[in-house]
Design a protein that fits this description.
heterotrimer; A mainly beta (199); B alpha/beta (163); C mainly beta (788); A: mainly beta; globular; B: alpha/beta; 4 helices; 6 strands; elongated
């Protein structure tokens, strides 16, 4: 498995994107690279896993990725926000990452679940779920292959008091320090490429 | 012409509890008739130990004026007795669902002698009650109750519903 | 069994649906409620605190459902704003409008130009609705109607309506009541119940016209003082007589309950005097003392004058039954020690004389009577019973105008002797019961002691016994021996094609009571029992307190045959015949009663047939064996095609005692005072739902002898399609020997406006033979209905 680190030049404090996969084929002419087999993309506190990932870069250097699955069931995204002890997990048939808009789209039977301190609290089921990492929002639209009723978006939200309770509990658990991130290795060796797992 | 004396009708169960007061004309006559029809039957005081429970759910005694004389005074009352009862086996099987026996009698009435007529009403109601004992005994010793109990005895109440 | 007979009203409990106890609405508190959403699109923003849904969006929570084209839900504050055909559904109440703002945590909100329909059936629209909290909704320039149908019959319009759910009260400030769009009533402060339950408020008014009192308008007002007490005031106006105020106070406590009712009219324009009535019913259990538990029952009635009940009637009284002797009874009952019971009672009457007839009504009063009764059944096979009664009899004095003053002065108004009677009747019987036969020998001793005051001080105007003597104290002891035996034969046969079991039940009843001259004994409360199947097999042809015990050496022979359906045991047909054979002549009679002359009684025949489960007939016939004439015929048929639908026709014939010319030994041709008067009547009665909305109940009694309708009553109820019910009752019945009262009553009930009063049709139905109670109350609406 070949590690491929690529720095996106667009904005400096942007965390770099790192992708691990079994195989990689890179086409320099039109700047596209295709990762296949146990693909794991990490970007800051976001991790994407799928069977195949097509990555391309546009003229301005923004990256666009399309993740698809063949063997495993879902493309899977995990977004952590340690300071409020939250993890948002989404899955769907296909994932599209748009570097310019800084959004990740999950298309087809898309489901988003928000965990607090490891416990699931809210879920949204629809056909397409779009994450906007810029302002930290996400939206869902219905469609024929919606995870909920065809054409509909359905969400389940726990009561306000319970979520606050869980956050308080978690804060006490980690006595006010942010939750350790499972995506980024411990802070001290941030950013270095990690060797890929055996194929 | 085919008539023969009514014989005993032994019942498959031997212990019965009933909430019908034993120290009453109706209760005593009912117990004697049931024991005569099925000599092996015993009446127990503790409901838990009884194989079957005969419960009187409702006894309604009512009267209604049916005819008036020229002065508009009541001349005749129609007395009605309604008795609702059910028979349940100790494993919860409903041998006789809640059913009602009704009997009516007409009583000529004379308002000028209300007390004498009141006493006559009491004897009429008792006579209707005793006449119901015959029907009650016949219903309890009917074939569908006996077979129902025999089938039920094997299975507990719930399974009976499952089948 | 105590002698006090309390007539219970038969209420059959028809099978009906109940709200299952498991069906409960979750009483989650607010921070446990999970919110579900459903929409075409959902945007979760500002740190997942606000959710925007659009495309037929819905927010669903266990306590509320909110729908709208787009919905913004701010979770941090709990406010939900729906725009575009918003619908809020909460506890069964539905409010719809173009826009809506609602706070799920504080459960308050406003809806613009709402159209609402409440779980309790109330509905209408308003310019604005403010949900103040769970219990209180305020509506601005609203319309309210009590029932949920498209175009309601009545409506209240007001600029400010407040609905309080717990207090079950709607308050409309300067509200106007419209009926079919016509303003009918205005009031600055109009209240109405939201739910149909015990609630202070006006009941359905009744308008009527009676021949004896003219126009009759009554508007009852119900005051729900407390869950255990309530008071109904009935202001009433009668055009011929004036204004009257009625009241009924009911109280219900764990060990006592009762009703105190009364009316008062200060000046009756026709009689120029005040008229009143009161009646008190009370029952109480007093707990146990010395092993005996005591209970008290009081039934005390009084009226201002004899004609009170003839002049005042209401929609539901069908006959003047029990209005000649107003019962006044106080009874202290006791029972205990397993086999003993009894009572101490005072039994008096207020007798209402009938001015149009010349006989004076009256009956003995028991002031007081003490009874001790013991019964021990199946003690080693023996049944023991003893009844001991001590009674002080006093006949009410009469100072009315039916007797001239000097006649009254001679006896100071006394009409009958007074006296005290002690009787003790103890019996032992040994019933031998076998499946096919039974024999019940029974031996009893009846002892009685009389102390009678014949008012000898009035000389020739004093009273005399049947024998003409005036013995102060008399005692009588008589043995009573009887043997009751019967057999039951059975065979399998078919009846109308059904496999059935037929029985043949011969029965023999032998009675022996020696003769003792009882002509010195006064008659307090004894009368001839009507000869029928019950009295044919009883010990004494006289009933009541047995002031006369017939000398008897007689056998009653009876034969009954019944047909039962073999599988269900349902009695399909019963035929009965009986006759009594006397071996001695009748030597004990009541005064003016002529003894029988033959040695055989009348034949009695009886038939009872339930031809189908819907059509039953009954017939009884009594034939005089000597002249082969029928003395009595009773036949009736009842058809009940389905529930709440019965038609019954009955025919009664009683031979007139005069018609018996050959009986020359009747004393001076006086009518036998103990024989029923001759009559021949036909009575038709029925309850019939003509259509789903129109319903009728009625009864007509026609006398063939006098070829006139003695009484009829007809009630028609029309259930309007939209929450109103109209009732008309026409009736005419005899109130005295010559007078009768004809009346028409009309009632318009606006469902949901007034509180729930007594249902007059229900009371009417009780007077129709074959009556089947209708009491399938409308199941309470639950918030589970109309769930979206």
């Amino acid at each position: 498995q070949t590690p491929a680190g690529s720095k996106s030049p667009a904005n400096k404090e942007e965390p770099d994107t790192q992708v691990l996969s079994d195989t990689l084929s890179y086409d320099d002419a039109n700047k596209t690279s295709v990762f296949t087999g146990n693909v794991i993309l990490t970007r800051g506190l976001m991790k994407l896993t799928s069977d195949k990932l097509d990555l391309r870069e546009d003229a301005q250097g923004f990256q666009y990725g399309v993740a698809t699955v063949s063997k495993s069931r879902f493309v899977f995204i995990r977004q952590e926000r340690p300071e409020n002890y939250e993890v948002v997990e989404a899955r769907g048939d296909r994932g599209e990452y748009d570097g310019k808009l800084n959004t990740v789209k999950m298309i087809g039977h898309a489901t988003v679940t928000r965990f607090i301190c490891g416990k699931p609290f809210d879920t949204v089921n629809g056909e397409v779920v779009t994450f906007n990492n810029q302002n930290n929002t996400y939206s869902a639209t219905g469609g024929p292959t919606s995870a909920a009723q065809p054409g509909r978006v359905r969400s389940i939200a726990q009561p306000r008091a319970k979520t606050d309770l869980a956050v308080a509990e978690c804060r006490k658990l980690y006595n006010n320090k942010p939750m350790p991130s499972t995506i980024q290795a411990p802070a001290q060796d941030g950013g270095s490429a990690t060797t890929g797992a055996a194929g | 012409c085919g008539f023969k004396l009514r014989g005993e009708k032994p019942l498959p169960f031997t212990t019965m509890y009933t909430n019908i007061e034993s120290n009453s004309n109706f209760g005593a006559y009912l117990r004697r008739s049931l024991k005569a029809s099925s000599p092996s039957l015993q009446f127990v005081d503790n409901q838990a130990t009884a194989q079957v429970v005969l419960s009187q759910l409702e006894r309604i005694q009512s009267q209604r004026e049916v005819s008036l004389n020229a002065q508009g005074q009541v001349e005749e009352y129609e007395l009605t007795l309604r008795l609702t009862f059910q028979l349940v086996s100790n494993n919860g099987q409903l041998l006789i669902p809640p059913s009602t026996l009704t009997s009516t009698r007409t009583l000529p009435y004379d308002e000028a002698n209300a007390q004498a007529k009141a006493q006559e009403m009491v004897t009429l109601y008792q006579d209707m009650e005793v006449q119901m004992v015959g029907q009650l005994v016949r219903r309890i010793s009917s074939d569908d109750v006996i077979q129902g109990y025999r089938q039920g005895a094997g299975t507990s109440g719930e399974e009976q519903f499952v089948r | 069994q105590t002698g006090v007979l309390v007539p219970g009203v038969g209420q059959s409990s028809a099978p009906r649906l109940y709200v299952s106890p498991m069906l409960t609405s979750p009483s989650l508190n607010n921070d446990e409620i999970i919110t579900f959403t459903d929409s075409a699109r959902a945007d979760i923003t500002n740190n997942t605190n606000t959710i925007t849904l659009d495309g037929k969006a819905q927010i669903r929570r266990p306590d509320a459902i909110l729908k709208g084209d787009t919905i913004d839900y701010d979770r941090s504050t709990g406010t939900v704003t729906a725009t575009g055909n918003a619908r809020l559904f909460r506890d069964g109440n539905l409010i719809t409008g173009p826009g809506l703002r609602y706070n799920v945590d504080k459960t308050n909100g406003t809806i613009t130009s709402p159209v609402y329909s409440l779980a309790t059936g109330g509905q209408g629209q308003a310019s604005e609705a403010n949900i103040i909290d769970d219990n209180h909704v305020n509506l601005k320039d609203a319309t309210y109607s009590g029932c949920s149908c498209v175009e309601p019959f009545w409506q209240i319009r007001s600029n400010n309506v407040d609905l309080y759910n717990d207090e079950n009260e709607g308050i409309a400030e300067n509200g106007t009541l419209y009926i079919k769009g016509v303003p009918v009533m205005w009031s600055p402060y109009l209240t109405f119940p939201i739910r149909a339950e015990k609630k202070t408020g006006f009941l359905t008014p009744t308008y009527g016209m009676t021949s004896r009192s003219g126009l009759d308008v009554s508007v009852p007002y119900f005051i729900n003082l407390a869950p255990q007490y309530d008071l109904t005031l009935v202001p009433r106006y009668l055009s011929k007589r004036g204004a009257q105020l009625g009241a009924e106070f009911r109280y219900l406590q764990p060990n006592y309950s009762g009703t105190l009712a009364g009316t008062y009219m200060s000046k009756d324009n026709e009689l120029g005097r005040s008229r009143w009535m009161y009646s008190w019913r009370h029952i109480q259990s007093l707990g146990s003392v010395l092993g005996l538990n005591f209970n008290l029952s009081i039934d005390w009635n009084a009226v201002s004058d004899d004609d009170y009940y003839r002049d005042f009637t209401d929609m539901t009284t069908v006959t003047q039954a029990d209005k000649t002797y107003l019962n006044r009874n106080i009874t202290l009952g006791f029972s205990g020690y397993k086999y003993w019971d009894g009572y101490l009672q005072i039994q008096k009457y207020q007798t209402l004389q009938d001015a149009t007839s010349d006989d004076i009504y009256g009956q003995y009063e028991k002031v007081p009577e003490l009874r001790i009764h013991g019964a021990r059944y199946d003690w080693h096979g023996l049944d023991l019973e003893t009844t001991n009664t001590l009674t002080r009899f006093e006949y009410p004095t009469y100072f009315g105008d039916k007797l001239t003053d000097d006649v009254i002065d001679q006896t100071d108004g006394h009409l009958r002797p007074n006296g005290t009677r002690l009787t003790s009747y103890s019996t032992i019987s040994y019933p031998i019961i076998r499946p096919g036969w039974y024999i019940t020998p029974k031996v009893g001793i009846h002892a009685s002691q009389y102390e009678t005051d014949w008012f000898t001080r009035y000389g020739q105007y004093s009273f005399y016994s049947q024998s003409g003597n005036q013995r102060r104290s008399i005692s009588r002891v008589l043995p009573i021996v009887s043997l009751d035996a019967g057999m039951t034969f059975e065979r399998e046969t078919t009846l109308f094609g059904y496999p059935s079991t037929q029985t043949l039940e011969p029965r023999l009843y032998y009675l022996y009571i020696p003769y003792q001259d009882q002509s010195d004994i006064p008659i307090f409360d004894t009368d001839v029992s009507q000869f029928g199947f019950a009295s044919a097999f009883s010990e004494n042809r006289y009933n009541g307190g047995w002031d006369r015990i017939n000398n008897a050496n007689q056998i009653t022979l009876g034969l009954t045959s019944r047909w039962f359906d073999r599988d269900t045991g349902f009695q399909r047909l019963a035929l009965q015949v009986a006759q009594r054979v006397y071996f001695n002549r009748q030597r004990v009679t009541l005064p003016y009663e002529s003894p029988r002359i033959g040695s055989k009684s009348d034949w009695i025949f009886g038939a009872e047939a339930a031809l189908t489960n819907k059509f039953t007939t009954q017939a009884a016939l009594q034939v005089d064996p000597y002249q082969g004439k029928t003395t009595q015929v009773y036949a009736s048929a009842k058809w009940t095609p389905k529930r709440l639908t019965t038609l019954s026709l009955s025919y009664r014939y009683q031979r007139d005692p005069y018609a018996d010319e050959e009986r020359t030994d009747i004393n001076q041709g006086n009518p036998l005072s103990y024989q029923l008067q001759g009559k021949e009547t036909v009575s038709f009665a029925g309850q019939w739902p003509f259509t789903r909305k129109l319903y009728g109940v009625g009864r007509v009694d026609y006398s063939l002898k006098e070829s006139r309708v003695t009484q009829h009553i007809l009630g028609i109820e029309y259930k309007g399609d939209c929450c109103w019910t109209g009732r008309v009752v026409l009736k005419r019945y005899a109130v005295s020997k010559e007078d009768s009262n004809s009346a028409i009553f009309f009632q318009l009930e606006l469902a949901g406006l007034g509180s729930l009063g007594k249902d007059p049709m229900e009371l009417l139905r009780q007077n129709v033979p074959g009556y089947e109670s209708v009491n399938t109350p409308v199941p309470a609406r639950t918030s589970f209905e109309r769930y979206e």
